Structures are given as structure tokens and as C-alpha cells.
Amino acid sequence: MTGRVLIVGGGIAGLAAAAELLPSGVGVEILEARDRLGGRAGSFRMGNTWVDACQHVNLGCCSSLRELLLRFGLEKELIRQKTIWFCTKDGRVSPFAAFPLPEPLHLAPAFLRAHWLSWKDKWGIARALDRLRRDPLPKVDRPLADWLRETEQTPGAIEGLWGPVVISALNEPWQTASFLSAAKVFREGMLGPKGSFEIELPRASLGELFDDGLGRRLEEKGLIVHRGTRVRNLVVDKEKVLGVRTLDGEYLAADTVILAIPRHQWSQVFPPSVLDRHPDLEMGEKIDWAPISALHLWLDRPLTDLPHAALVGGEGHWLFRHRNIARFPGDRAHYHQILLSASGSALENGSEALLGRILLELGEYFPTMRKAELLEAKVVSERRATIRPTVGFDRMRPGPKTSLRGLLLAGDWTATGWPSTMEGATRSGWAAAQAILGTSPNR
């Protein structure tokens, strides 16, 4: 197949689509408004180095992103953490790792030694996970909260396991989360093959991984990237997309356009009448978005020798320090990042108030914090980090094909069967490319 495909948006979805198309001889160009690729999986400059705006984590069950990186020799840029370290405010730590037992019993010993869960909590969790493994999923969604009550989960089990996992994986509190979305997380992660629950962290910054790494290697394969190029509008004639016009007035013709930008940015690129004539394009308009916040801390000493910590019962959900990020050459400060998912309410009194609360809270988990000196801090919030997986949200997610000829959609917010993650973004890009090539996924 030959032709010219323009991809509007150089995030993970756009990069994945390009990677799928290039081997087929399709001419592919990405138009990215920023000067670097990666989209929301991006970084910012702090002194002389790149710092990820928010820590992105890939789960072991997320195979598509790993395969995408493998194609270009970048798989070693994800560091596998085989143990998840759970910390409580009394300073105690429990490792959570797989044992050499048949699945799904490989995680049973890890649950048994989880110090923050009572025996009643653990028994209830075991019964619920076994039910989740055996029972077919319903076709109609329901609130996760209803299922937790139905399976008689204790407050300790909800606050100690179900809630933390759901808010970390879905960026949504358990009280309002979709059961089907939560069930996918637990089935794919805890009830999947060994290693499915393990986390992978980028070795370098996200900017280096997706721009300097994946983006540059795609360019070596023939991808043309227009960095710093903002699209003014799609050019549509007789119900077909003919190409795009950039902000500086340049017209770029295309056989197909893949729109790989978030739904809330559509008003910037669609001619006003097009959406009215194509009702299917209204899908996704009512999707809600949730924020994620990260507190970047440079201290005069390390708080822990752990590469990460899941903070049980805290306002902050995770601490990461898998690599030290110096602000300038010779800097001996110790870098830590605290991640808060679904952080809307946490920001109600402002970033400074949030920072103050988190610093006090860290002293409960890590006594070293009480003597540490804060050298620098930065609070970064992504207001629209992920879509909210509330009940029925999947019905609002469009697939890659549209009724407007020559237009396809990609992005973690589209219908992938996965949450709004790097994995979902990768799968969406592949789906859009396969719609062009007329192939079916065999992954």
C-alpha cells in the first residue's frame, strides 16, 4: 500500500501508529505542536536535566508498549521491579512479590505477610479474587462499590488493597470507579501470569525515551516529524478529509489523517459544521478527565533505600526514587517524587498547602524525613491526565473508524478495552494503523 498519512499528535498513540504503518511502505508524517514527542508522557527541564512531569509506570501485563519498544531495541529502557514495597505510617514495610507456586497461588504468600491487612481482611480478599477469577464478567457495568459490598469486603481490605490498587491503576477512587474497569486490572494483574503485577519504570526520562529514543529511531526508518507545528484545522471537502492546514497557513494534503489528540482539543481543528453532519464524532464529548499530581522533592539525604514505596493510608500514593536526578553538575541532593492520583480534591487549597501536608506525612512513613532539609520542591499537576473510568464510560469511547472518510482516531481515551494508560495509547495507535492497512491484530 502507498499513500500519505498525516498523524496529528506525537504522543504514544501517534508514535505507535507510525511504527505500525512504516514497514508497509506508507508515507507517514507526524505533526506535533510541541518541540518534543511523547504527549502527556513528557518531561520538563530542571537545571541541566530532564525530569518527568509525573512518574509513568508500566505493568507487567501491559505487553503492547513493551513490544513497541522491543521493535526498536528500547526494551531495556524499562526497568522491571519484581517486588512492590508497601509502607505504612508506623514505619513498617512489607515486600509483595511472586513465589514459585502455580498461578494464581503465586501471590498467596505475599498476601499472607502483608502486615497492614488483618486475617479477616485477607480472607475476604481471597474469596473475592477467587470469585473474580471464576465468574464471567457481566455485560452491563456497575459500580465497584456495589461489588465490594456484595462480596463483604471489610473496611480494612478496601482501604488497604482494593482502593489503593484502583486509584493507582485507574486514577479513580474506588467509590466511583467502574466495576468492569477494576475487574480488568485485577484479572490482568494479580490473577494473570507471573510477573503481570510487577511494575516497570523508565530508565531515563520519558522525554528521552519517546523523543530521543523511539521518535528518532522512527525517523531513521522514514518517519517525517514536524515538531513545533500546530494544526489550525482539518481540510474537509465533500465529506472527506483531504489534509490539514497548519497555523502558519501551510496546506498538507493526505490520503488519510489520524487524529491522535485528546477529545477536548477537537474544537481547535474541526470546521464548525463537520461535527454537526457526523453524529458519531460526538462520541467522547462527555468523557470526564481526572488529574494526577506529582511532588518533586530534592532533599539533603535519602528517605529510604527502596526504589519505590506504595504508601498505604496516605494522601500521597507512591514514592519513587529509582534514579537520582541532579539539578546541576555536582549536585548532591537526593531526588524523590511523590505521586497523587485523582488529585483534584488534594489541590483545593493550593499547591503550597499540599506540599506542606505531604512533607509532614512523609515523616510518618520515613523517620529520616523529620531531620531532612528540603532543598527544592516543585508541584506539577496534569489537569487532564486520564479519562475517568466511571460506570458506563466505555460506551462513550469511539473506535478508530469514523463516518468522515479519510479520518481515523487514536488516543488512550478511545475504545481499546484498556484503561487510559500508555498501554491503551499504544493499542489505539495500532488499531488506527490496522484500519488503514486492512489487517487485524494478532497480538
Structure description:
By secondary structure, the chain is an alpha/beta fold. It is built from eleven helices and 20 strands. The protein has helices at residues 12-21, 63-71, 108-112, 119-134, 144-150, 155-170, 179-188, 206-220, 272-277, 351-365, 422-437, and strands at residues 4-8, 27-32, 43-46, 49-52, 58-59, 78-81, 84-87, 93-96, 199-202, 224-227, 231-237, 240-246, 251-253, 256-259, 289-299, 308-311, 318-320, 334-341, 374-387, 407-409. The strands form five sheets. Strands 8-7-16-17-18-15-19 form a seven-stranded mixed β-sheet. A five-stranded parallel β-sheet has the order 10-2-1-14-20, with helices on one face. A three-stranded antiparallel β-sheet has the order 5-9-6, with helices on one face. The mean pLDDT is 94.
Write the layout of secondary structure elements.
Blueprint: E1 4-8, H1 12-21, E2 27-32, E3 43-46, E4 49-52, E5 58-59, H2 63-71, E6 78-81, E7 84-87, E8 93-96, H3 108-112, H4 119-134, H5 144-150, H6 155-170, H7 179-188, E9 199-202, H8 206-220, E10 224-227, E11 231-237, E12 240-246, E13 251-253, E14 256-259, H9 272-277, E15 289-299, E16 308-311, E17 318-320, E18 334-341, H10 351-365, E19 374-387, E20 407-409, H11 422-437
Parallel strand pairs: 1-2, 1-14, 2-10, 7-16, 14-20
Antiparallel strand pairs: 3-4, 5-9, 6-9, 7-8, 11-12, 12-13, 15-18, 15-19, 16-17, 17-18
Helix pairs in contact: 1-8, 1-11, 2-11, 4-6
